[in-house]
Fold:
Amino acid sequence: MMALGGTGYVLFTKQGIPRRWESQKQIDEKSKISKLVEQSQSKCRAVFPEWEKKTNACYFQNEDGRNTIALVGDSHVGHLFPGLIQVTKENEGIVVFPASCATPFIDIIAAAKDNPRRQNNWQLHRDAYKYIFEHPEIKTVVLGHHPGCSFYDVIDRQNPKEKDKNKIMENGIRRTFDILQEKGKKVLIVLDNPNLNFEPKSCIARPFITPFRGVFRKDIHSKEKSIVSYNERIINISKEYPNISIIDLSEYFCDSKNCYAVKNKKLLYKDRNHLNYDGSLYVAPAIMEKIREISRNH
Structure:
């Protein structure tokens, strides 16, 4: 009885064992991908040795000069990488340039008031774009951003006196879209996955506790001010650029009424806004298909 009670207590305090229902094959696959991600981090470190010392780690799926797709943005492009590397073909490869809470737009600083380390993320992205433009094998650039990062705290380095955050974002977006078009790059904008209004660990089965189903009203996402502001601006401006396409990840998490943190009995979130391994893998085929579609059509 004491042993049983002790085991139950450990499971309760550890919030269960999330992988206890996974097959050995699934565990082995995740371990394999984890190693590939680590190797990709090392490949980026060889080209950008200072990157991860300043912000999130960057990734090169293939060796320098053998990648065809670049992702630029914040940690919300970083969390797409584990899934995307599983759906690339032999002639494709991905580089990822994430910087904490940074927009993918040139010379725009975001979310730096409470985190001074983010002050120089604009320079990291300048270096990333320099690399992208110097490598003609990179045909497609994917831009992603968590809108909450730039909604309240944003600065335009080229016009620091501008205080209207809407104008600041518009200037940064157009500046970036202009040069990507000039350089002949195809562009895919990833509109963000929904934020959760609960902790995803509440969806994990634990002894004596019924797990939360992970369902919440769609309007919690669709009416969020930062989401509305960012998405409307991106959609309207992108209409002026024939090389730009959009994929809205909320379409894969939501139906007409609700959004879901769990799909096919798999929890898709690591925290309230970042996808976990299964979430990354869940959206990867749709993103990669969109990348290939614009490669064929533009």
User: Anything to note?
Assistant: Residues 23-297 form a domain with the Rossmann fold fold (CATH 3.40.50.1110).
